[in-house]
Amino acid sequence: MSKSSSLNKVFADLPVTIFEAMSQAARDNNAINLGQGFPDDPGPEDIRRAAAEASLNGYNQYPSMMGLPELRQAIATHYGHWHGLKLDPMSEVMVTSGGTEALTSAILAVVQPGDEVVCFQPVYDSYLPIIRQAGGIPRLVRLEPPHWRLNEDMLKSVFNSRTKAVLFNNPLNPSAVVYPREDLELLARYCQEFDVIAICDEVWEHVTFDEHKHIPLITIPGMRERTIKVGSAGKIFSLTGWKIGFVCAAPPLLRVAAKVHQFLTFTTAPNLQAAVAYGLGKSDDYFLSMRKDLTRSRDRLTKGLESLGFPVLKSQGTYFLTVDLSPLGLNESDTEFCWRIVKDYKVAAIPVSAFYEQDPVTSVVRFCFAKKDETLDTALERLSDAVRGRKR
């Protein structure tokens, strides 16, 4: 008899992710992919050259499990400069093979069977399977457009004596919100009242727009010893394929996360680590210019979509903006809309309902604007009749 029925159901029963499904649909239909969050630019040339130089003339054997010392120092210095966060690079900083591995290390370090973990929907797709693999029980909070904000009632409904951790994404993918201090202080109050560890997915921390400033939860009073902060060089430098993640936490938390990391990927390519260390030391002008360029792309896609009749929700951060289809009177859900436009208009987007496990918001669609002008303009031209062609 086949043993396939006894395979791990946490993973065996998972569907193909919406990102893979829509990216495959984009390939099959020769469509412009504004769904998955990657730029169509190769990334900063000087950082790529630093990686090549380190590969040719540097160390190419196993680096330290915790990361190259120069990168750990660069991470600590970077966060000290940008956020006033003082970190000991040797006991409070670890390098991982991407942000997802960093989050997995953090979740498996904290969550034990029966522990409850608060998660906010829309929720990134890797969170729930890893929580369940650890034996944890997700407690889901439903965030709603147009503001996607936290409030007292929603936290009161899920925090209790069994709550072990909260998993919090800020800036929030897919809804492109940068949370203000007011919301962070509210969440911090509940974490302290119920003795909860916060695992903070902050990979978009440098990708913020207008007057919105990223505030790490770990810097809120009372949260320094109970927060695991996760960052990503891939998002900071638009080098998503490099998969260099950061974990920052007080020593008691980091020590256990490091033991998990040891048995996941163990270490990360040393030439890429060396290049990221170089990149983190770049002047403020680089990071401000990156935001300015992405702001221009955001505004280009926003203006174009609005001119076609799409109600755009303002993007405060990330590579994404969202459109709320509900005012349009279309006779289709966000998922149906995305499948229609990839087939009929050759543009791929992501339905935000895919980020919900319970009671989904079914009217919001996510587009990625981290693309060249000509890519965005061609997509807009293709979408010119997508609203008029489907109204009741």
UniProtKB/TrEMBL annotation:
It catalyses: L-aspartate + 2-oxoglutarate = oxaloacetate + L-glutamate. Its cofactor is pyridoxal 5'-phosphate. Its EC number is 2.6.1.1. Keywords: Aminotransferase, Pyridoxal phosphate, Transferase. One of its GO terms (cellular component) is cytoplasm. The keyword Transferase applies. One of its GO terms (molecular function) is L-aspartate:2-oxoglutarate aminotransferase activity. Gene3D superfamilies: Aspartate Aminotransferase, domain 1, Type I PLP-dependent aspartate aminotransferase-like (Major domain). Residues 31-383 form the Aminotransferase class I/classII large domain. It comes from the Bacteria. Pfam families: Aminotran_1_2. Homodimer. Belongs to the class-I pyridoxal-phosphate-dependent aminotransferase family. This is aspartate transaminase. It comes from Bradyrhizobium forestalis.
